[in-house]
Amino acid sequence: MARGTTIRMWRRSIFVLAALIIVGFGVIIFRLIKLQLFQGESLQQMALEQQLKDTKINAQRGTIYDRNMKPLAQSATVWTVVLESAYLKDDKVKEKIADGLSQILDEDKNEILEKSKKKSFYTIVKRKVESDVKDKIIEFQKENKITTGIRLVEDYKRYYTYGDFASCVLGFTGTDSQGLAGLESYYNEYLTGQSGRLVTARNAVGTDMPFDYEKMIPAQNGNNLVLCIDEVIQHFLEKGLEEGIINNKVMNRAGAIMMDVNTGEILGMAVKGGFDPNKPFEIADQTVKEQIELLPEEDRAKIKAEALEAQWRNKLVSDTYMPGSVYKQITTAMAFEENLINEKTAFNCTGSFVPFQGARPIKCHKHGGHGLQVFARAFCNSCNPSFIQIGQKIGAERFYKYYQAFGFTEKTGIDLPGEANGIFFSKDGSMGPMDLAVASFGQNFSITPIQMITACAAVANGGHLVQPHIVKQITDNEGNIVKNFDKIEKRQVISEQTSKRICDLLMQNAIDGGAKNGYIAGYRIGGKTGTTQKIGNSGPGGMDYISSFCGIAPADNPRYILLIYYDTPKGPSYYGAAVAAPTFAKIMQDALPYLGVERKYTDEEIAKLDIQVPFLVGSSVDQAKNQAINLQLNPVVYGSGETVISQIPDFSTKMPKGGTIVLYTDKESADKKVIVPKFIGLNLATANREASAAKLNIIIKGSSLSSSSSVCASQSIAEGAEVKPGTVINLVFAQSKTEHKD
User: Fold this and answer.
1) Is pLDDT larger for residue 286 or for residue 57?
2) Number of other residues whose CB lies within 10 A of the CB of residue 344
3) CB-based burial of residue 570 (10 Å sphere; 0-12 exposed, 13-18 middle, 19+ buried)?
4) How many angstroms separate the CA atoms of 420 and 323, rounded?
5) DSSP secondary structure code for residue 186 in this structure
6) Residue 171 in contact with residue 85, Cβ under 8 Å?
7) Cβ of 315: how many Cβ atoms within 10 Å?
8) Model's pTM, two decimal places?
9) Helix (H) or strand (E) run with residue 532 in it
10) What percent of the chain has pLDDT over 90?
């Protein structure tokens, strides 16, 4: 019995043991299958992450050039200071490195000391260190015979060549070299390039392995942008706006856009009241900055963020406004295209107009009215009652059709971020008689400045609505073209005949109408002013306004269009004619000669061109310069004396306004000579440039004043002759054999 029991117990034990073995091995086999088949890939990845350290190497961001390949934004080499602390065994060396780097980098010594104690071959101390600081670190290493422990890794930092220049167009980048605004953001994918990698091995205890165990995958640098913007034109815009802001006490920034009417290329886009993209997170307006610093600490961060957003904002693309009388050329285009009126259609202005029975009268800016006038005169008078009547002839349905055709119901598609869309009445008939009345002269709806200038360009260029664009080309590091941005024409809105008729009206308006403050003698300017109320934005002293001017040149064959925009002027006047038109004239006075647009004077203008040279000998240098400047002459002083001893041209000589008068202050300077260039065969614009470069004056005669195809046929002083600076040379122009048209 005892023996049977023992056998049974033995069998049970074997069975239990076998069961345990089977279950145990089953669990192990199941676990192995799970690890190998289901978790193998993720476990391998975890192992690699434990064994390898992956450090990003930034690519060099592409350069942004103007149309003449002048760099506006570029990336320069900076350095990342890295501690290879695993090499540092001696505490005295760690102390010395921490002390030296803290002084050079202006960093906390204790923090650097703590980093030096890590078991790592790659601990970042500071990023974006300039080359002069890098040189100090190298010198520190040499002086203290430190051969290991400090490493300098090449990196890149973004620089903007001209500081606060086209800032709202260019935008800026963040600390990670990603575009955050403007072109930097819009074309970030092209500019960024592809980052490289630095892969570092780790040993069993988790310490980085030495340099020999590293693998570097180089970065691929970004592409470059070549803009349509001309740096010289951009400077003209910004300088003109700066003066206008001061003279007119503009409270809420100002903007200007210059565009090629035929291609849509933006030659300049300026928003003053911007920021320095080298320091984008600093408040640029010193007054605003001081006001924020006075706020309670709990409110400061929010208000500063709002101020930063405001200074980064491109008003010309992202803000809407009521265009006012600038829009009257669009209303005119509608009426001409539908044959509803012509230049001789008569309108009677009594000083106000009631658009429908029971409506409030809408006043004309001329209190007593303009009386009976033909439309060509009503246009130059910018008579609101006349345009209300034109709007009634057009009707709401056709008005909306053309409004849409000119692109006001959609974004222009300009290659900048944050473009806004306008606000208008819907197509379903919600535009009532009063809405139509005020819309006919540009009120009670909102558009962006870029929409306005794009539509005006279509009026000027023969009726073709083209898409505005900032970028001309994208190129790689070797200058190869990656992408071209050609002209995009959306549609033809009006006929060439209608376009020409309106250009004639715009030119007449600049000669003797509301746009005459934008007129420049010799250039065929056409333009329209605008003055609009900012609804719901009454400031101290009453209603706030936006003053604007949109003009073309040359009006008989338009090539360039310029829109000036001032938000909330608080100076002597708020009217576009007084505020914006003079800025237009100043900018165009500089820009058109630079762009090679020739002057064509009328007989009346010719009579006013030449002035008599004053007698300046014996005057002090300052007195002589001031007298010359007051006469619209350009004084050039030679010598180091304090008194003028001779001058060229001589007293009583006739010379053109804007010419050069040379003042000599000692005998040595009076011997200075210049070489007369060859003027024969040159057109007027080129001859002017050559004369200006040589510091000579020219008096022009012949057909140059009335023909764009004339060239210089003779010059009073031969090419190559040596003469004194300021000498007057008579040039005779004659018609060339072949007529060229743009």
Assistant:
1) 286
2) 9
3) middle
4) 15
5) H
6) no
7) 22
8) 0.75
9) strand 526-533
10) 51
Does position 498 have pLDDT exceeding 80, yes or no?
yes
**Average pLDDT of the residues in 371-396:** 96
Cβ atoms < 10 Å from Cβ of 429: 10
Structure-token pair, residue 612: 């008599």
d(CA 597, CA 524): 10
383 neighbors 373 (Cβ within 8 angstroms):
yes
Q: Which two tokens stand for residue 467?
A: 């898409």
Strands 64-65 and 224-227: parallel
The per-residue pLDDT of the chain, averaged, comes to 86
Domain at 55-226, CATH homologous superfamily: Penicillin-binding protein 2a (Domain 2) (3.90.1310.10)
Tokens of 207: 């310490």
Q: How far is CA 12 from CA 3, 5, 8, 20, in A?
A: 14, 11, 6, 12
> How do strand 697-702 and strand 728-735 relate by DSSP bridges?
parallel
pLDDT at residue 21 is higher than 60: yes
Helical (H) or strand (E) element with 316: helix 315-318
| Best CA proximity match to 159, nearest among 237, 276, 269, 310 | 276
For the chain, state the CA radius of gyration. Answer: 36
User: What's the CA gap between 492 and 511, in Å, rounded?
Assistant: 29
Higher local confidence (pLDDT), 45 or 644: 644
CB 60 within 8 A of CB 159: no
Distance CA 636, CA 695 (A): 9
- Measured from the Cβ of residue 541, the count of other Cβ atoms closer than 10 Å reads 7
User: Three-state DSSP class for 602?
Assistant: coil
Percent of the chain clearing pLDDT 70 (strictly above): 88
The packing angle between helices 496-512 and 328-337, to 10°, is 140
Residue-wise pLDDT for 521-551, tens only, equals 889 999 999 999 887 655 555 689 999 999 9
Check pLDDT > 80 for residue 33: no
Phi-psi region of 672 (alpha: psi -120 to 50; beta: other; left: phi over 0): beta
Tokens standing for 395? 């009707």
pLDDT band at 730; cut points 50, 70, 90: confident
Report the SS3 class of residue 52: strand
C-alpha 255/C-alpha 640 separation (Å) is: 42
Q: Does the pLDDT value for residue 22 go beyond 80?
A: no
**Rounded to an integer, what distance in angstroms lies between the CA atom of residue 630 and that of residue 644?**
17
Give me the amino acid identity at 200: T
Dump the DSSP string for 542-581: B--EEEEEEEEESTTS--EEEEEEEESB-SS---HHHHTH
Residue 250 has pLDDT above 90, yes or no: yes
- Tokens for 596? 């090679």
Give, as one character, the DSSP assignment of residue 221: P
Contact 708, 603 (CB under 8 A): no
Decide which of 3.90.1210.10, 3.40.710.10, 3.40.50.740, 3.30.450.20 is the CATH code for 324-594.
3.40.710.10
Over residues 593-629, the pLDDT tens digits come to: 999 898 887 777 776 667 788 999 999 999 999 898 8
Q: Locate the domains of the chain by residue range.
A: 2-38, 55-226, 324-594, 607-735
What topology does CATH give the domain 607-735? Trypsin Inhibitor V; Chain A (3.30.10)
CB distance 695 to 606 below 8 Å: no
Strand-pairing partners, residue 730, are: 699
Q: What's phi and psi for 215, nearest 5 deg?
A: -130, 125
DSSP 212: G
Residue 32, token pair as written in the block = 């192995």
Query: Is 324-594 in the same CATH topology as 55-226?
Result: no
Amino acid at 701: K
pLDDT above 60 for 708: no
Tens of pLDDT, residues 435-466? 999 999 999 999 999 999 999 999 999 999 99
